[in-house]
Amino acid sequence: MRAVVYNSPRNIEVKEVPDARIEKATDVLVKITTTNICGSDLHMYEGRTDFNSGNIFGHENLGVVIEIGNAIDRIKVGDMVCMPFNIGCGFCENCERGLTGFCLTANPGFAGAAYGFAGMGPYSGGQAELLRVPYADFNCLVLPPDAEEKENDYVMLSDIFPTGYHATELAGVQVGDSVVIYGAGPVGLMAAYSSIIKGASKVMVVDIHKDRLALAEKIGAIPIDDSDGSSVDQVLALTGGLGADRGCECVGYQCCDHKRHEVPNLTMNNLVQTVRATGGIGVVGVFIPQDPGASDKLAKQGQIAFDFGQLWVKGQHFGTGQANVKAYNRKLCNLIAAGKAKPSFLISHELPLDKAVEGYKNFDARKDGWTKVVLKPGK
Ligand SMILES: NC(=O)c1ccc[n+]([C@@H]2O[C@H](COP(=O)([O-])OP(=O)(O)OC[C@H]3O[C@@H](n4cnc5c(N)ncnc54)[C@H](O)[C@@H]3O)[C@@H](O)[C@H]2O)c1
Ligand SMILES: [Zn+2]
Ligand SMILES: [Zn+2]
């Protein structure tokens, strides 16, 4: 099969590799029809996390089941399915509680597994023609009859739509709230979209990229351009000096100042300043325990100089971590099926798998107009 393979930092290729196959009776084999490039892939692409040469990328996957293992009960050949980027077993203590992003079985010795992901187990990614799906009765979301027609919407259920939603859950967004979101990448846009769906009264999205901010405005959020570093003042001005009720971090450890220099504590400290006293903050942008590639001494050890005193004085709370996609994907799927959500609005490029190199290069450069790339193996 053809697959997107990592060689070394910013050096990937699409090449022929051995076919993915059923390895356990609880697996199914999926022929991938849509698979996205994600901001999380870029940490690996840039060589900032340990991703081995030869590994296959891809954790945002949708396709058709072509073979099932002997122990599969529910999933049938021909089903069109979307997989959460997390691989859960369904029976461990965390999966039982809906915390499938922290499965204790799928990646022994670590809480959490995913496809094509550094540190998340031995599972190959789906930026390929075929994908092996473990614990498939549990992990596959079988899509409604309009799956093909709305494929570019449903594929967002694999990660960014539930992840954006998760940010709003961690922050505690409720009807009528004002929300500030740092990052207008795909995840930040989905956090804004989820806030709007939940009935937030005012949603402010901060970034420096005009194309991404334009999408935020298109869905009814207030774009805040931080090109001169004034986002904190702008948010405070829009919230009577008090700050927003809720805040979402959708950037992660590679966040930058307005001159595009990495300042790993910037978004977290800006959120402490721009969320009101007693407000909530949801942190879905990725922060990692070691970052040898960082220029900052603290960041190399996975630490940031965090305004904890301010957070404490303001009585704020925050939640962090990988999104438990399965906790939300069915309900968000219902919204898409009912025509009440259309997360494909952020797609800028639909490319054949063979053009993945071009997709990575431009998305990584945050090149103007490259807001989300979906790959179509077989086209
Ligand atoms: N928790 C999860 O389950 C989960 C799932 C998916 C993605 N992620 C993470 O979410 C983050 C965002 O993903 P994405 O796909 O949107 O990535 P992305 O890199 O495309 O978008 C990040 C955006 O943040 C902006 N940005 C950088 N510094 C900023 C700052 N100081 N203030 C405001 N905006 C700033 C960038 O300009 C960019 O538009 C990544 O860290 C990704 O790994 C987490
Ligand atoms: Zn992703
Ligand atoms: Zn589990």
What features would you describe in this structure?
- Strands 3, 4, 5, 6, 7, 14 and 15 form a seven-stranded mixed beta sheet that branches. This protein has a six-stranded parallel beta sheet with strand order 10-9-8-11-12-13, with helices on both faces.
- The chain has two domains: 2-159 and 324-376, Medium-chain alcohol dehydrogenases, catalytic domain (Quinone Oxidoreductase, Chain A, domain 1); 160-320, Rossmann fold, CATH 3.40.50.
- The protein starts with a strand and ends with a strand.
- Strand 14, helix 13 (356-364) and strand 15 (373-376) form a beta-alpha-beta unit.
- It has 379 residues and is α/β, with parallel strands linked by helices.
- Helix 5 packs across helix 6 (186-197) and helix 8 runs parallel beside helix 9 (266-274).
- Helix content is 26%, strand content 22%.
- The mean pLDDT is 97.
- The chain has helices at 39-45, 93-96, 136-139, 151-154, 160-171, 186-197, 210-218, 231-238, 266-274, 297-300, 308-313, 329-337, 356-364, and strands at residues 2-8, 11-16, 28-37, 61-68, 80-83, 130-133, 141-142, 178-182, 202-207, 222-225, 244-249, 275-283, 317-320, 349-352, 373-376.
- The site of nicotinamide-adenine-dinucleotide has 33 residues, from helix 1, helix 6, strand 9 and helix 9.
